Amino acid sequence: MQGLSQLYYLHGIGYDFIKYTGEHVVFDEQTRSQALRCCGIDTANQKQINKLNFELDIAPWLVAVGDVSIVEQKDTLFKVRMPDYQCHGIASIHIKNLNYEYQFDLSKGMIVGEFIHEDTRYVEVAYQIMGMPAGYFDAKINLPEGQYNTQIWSVPNECYKQTTHPTTGISVQLYTLYSDRNLGIGDFADLDELIIHSAQSDCDYILLNPLHLLFTNQQHRVSPYSPNHRCLLNPLYIAIDRTQEYAMSEQLQNDYQQCLVSLQAQKQQPFIDYKLISEYKYDLLTAVYTHFKHNKTQQHHDKFIAFTQQFAAQLKVFNNDECAIYWQYLAHQQLNDCQQLCIKKGMAIGLINDLAVGCSQDSLEYKINQDLYAADAHIGAPPDPWAESGQDWGLPALNPMQLSKNKYAFFKQLLRSNMASVGGLRIDHVMAIRRLWWCFNINNKAQGCYVYYPFEHLIALLKIESQLQKNMIIGEDLGVVPPEIKTAMQDANMLGNILFYFEKDQHGEFIPPTQLRHQALLMVANHDVPPFAAWWQAQDLSIKVQYKLLADNALASERAKRTAEKVKLLHWFTNAGVTHLHAQSEAREVYENLLYVLAKSTVSMLCLQLDDLDEQALPVNIPGTYLEYPNWRRRLSQSVSDIFINRSDFIKTLTQSRKGL
Length: 661
What we know:
Layout: H1 3-11, E1 16-18, E2 24-26, H2 29-38, H3 46-58, E3 68-72, E4 77-83, E5 90-95, E6 100-105, E7 110-117, E8 120-128, E9 135-143, E10 146-155, E11 167-172, H4 188-200, E12 205-208, E13 212-213, E14 229-233, H5 244-248, H6 250-267, H7 274-295, H8 298-310, H9 312-315, H10 322-344, E15 350-355, H11 364-368, E16 373-381, E17 391-398, H12 405-419, E18 424-427, E19 435-442, E20 445-452, H13 455-469, E21 472-475, H14 483-491, E22 496-499, E23 520-523, H15 532-536, H16 539-546, H17 555-575, H18 587-598, E24 605-609, H19 610-613, H20 640-659
Helix pairs in contact: 1-3, 4-10, 4-20, 6-7, 12-13
Enzyme class: transferase
Family: Belongs to the disproportionating enzyme family.
Protein name: 4-alpha-glucanotransferase
C-alpha cells in the first residue's frame, strides 16, 4: 500500500460497505479523494501525502510512548515501542497522580506488534504494571535511552452498572409537558412533577430528549438534535417560578402571572409557538438575572462563581456575557435538583440524558471548535429503503485526525457535560464512535462515504467517564451497525436501543418477546415514529396526506400495508397467549396488552413513552421534513398529573411485574 491509497487507510477514509440490499459497494477513487480534500489535504500534492503517511504510520514507532497510553484494567498491560536492540535494561514508570513508581525489566515483556523502518525492527512490548482505578494519570517513563511523558488511561472493563434487575421507565420530550403553571413549554418544575408521579408508580428512570442549547434568536430552529451547543443547556427549561429571585421579587411574581394570562390561549393549542413564548420567557429570564445582579447574597454569589469555574471551558463561548452564563447556572442547578429528587424518591437510575450526534454548522459549538471539523462535509446516512439517495443531516463532520488534540479534550468535555446531574446517558447514533457517513458534493452532485474514527480511544473514554461520573450508557444503535460496535457494546455492558416496530424476523413478522435482545432499552415507539395510538388507527397516514407528505392516491395503498402490519401484530399476540384482541380493538387496550407481554421479556430496560400514555395522535417529529410539519413543537394534551391518574393502575401493574422477574 503506497501513496494516496495508504493515506486513505491511515486517515480513516472507508473503502467499502454493505448496502441495505446486501450489495457490496466499493467507494470510487473520486469519492475517497474528496473526503480527504474536506480534511484540507491536497490529493495532488505528493509531498504532502508522503509527509502525512510518515506522520501517521512511521513516526509513532519512533517514540517510546504517545501522548496517551491505554491500559486496560483487565490485564494492566502498559505498552512501549522501541528498536528491538534496545529491549534490555531496567525501566521505570512514575505516576504523578498516585505518587507511585514501578520498575520493570525491558527484556521480560511480551511483543505485541512490530514494524520495519530503514532496516531497523521496531517492536511494541507490553509490560504488566500495577492496577489503577479508572481515570487519567500523568506518567513519566524512564528508559535507558531517555525520558518520556504520557497520560495513562486506566480503562475499566465495562461501563457503570446502576442496577442488575430489569427496569421500567418513562421517556419524555420535556418541552411537550403541559401544566397550568408553566409558560407554554415544559420546564424543570414540570419534570419534578413527572419524577414524583413516576416514582410513586415504581418507575426506575426518566429518559429525556437532548437538553442542549438551541438558538435564542432563531425560534424556528427548535430541533434538540440540531443544537447550538451540546455542552450547554436550553434556558427555556428553567422554571422561573422556582428561582430564588422569583421568591424575593413581588414585581417578578406579578410579571410572571401576567405572562401566564397572556399565554393562556396559546397554551391550549396543540403546537408550541416558540416565537411568542420565547419573547415572554427571555424577558422574564433577563429580569431574573437583573434581580440577581443587584440583590445577590454573598452565598448566592459564591455558588455562581464556583459554577463558572467548574464549567469555565464550556462557558467560553459566551464571551463573558454574565446574563447568558447565569442562565446556564440556573439550568444546571435545577437539573441537578431534579436528579436529587429522583434519588430521594428511590428511583434506581433517575434521569437519563440524551446526547445528539452533532451540532449545527453555524453553532457556537462549531465556531469555537472549527479546527476540529472537516470543511464542506456533513454527516448523514447511506441509502436505505426510506431514502434511496441517502440522508444529509446538515451537521458538520468532525475530522478524525483532529479529535486527539489535547488528549481528546473535546470528546471528554462532551461526555462530562452531558453526564452532569443525571444517572445515565443515551448516545444518539452510537455508531459515530466507530464510523460516520460523510456527505459532500462532487461536481454539484451529492456523494458520500464512510469515514472511520479512533474507536479504541473513544470507547475507552466512554467507559472511563461512565465509571467516574457513575452514569450508565445506552447507545442508540438503530440501523446498520458494524459488528465490532455490537461486540464492543456487549463487552462494555453498554445497552443498545430497540424499537418494537422494527423488531422483525426475515419474514417480516414481529419477533417473540423471548428473542428480544437482553442488553437493551426497549421502546414501542420514539420521537421518530408515530405514537402507538396513531399507528394502530393509521392516523399518521392521514396526517401525512394533510401536510402533503403523502399523495392522496397513495393513501389507500399505505392503509392496506398498515392493515397487514396490524394482522402481524395480532398474530404475535396470539402466539404470546393473548387471544381476545382484534383489528377493531381500542388502541389503548392493544397498547396495554402489548406492554404487558413485553414486560415479561428479559430485556434490561422497558420504556413507556409519555406520548403513548397520553394517547397522542400527532407525532412530535416526522423525519425528512423541516418546515412542512411543525416538528418538535407538539404538546401533550393532558397534564402529567392527569396522565398518571388515568393510567396509574396500568403503570403500577407493569412496573411490579418487571420487578418480579
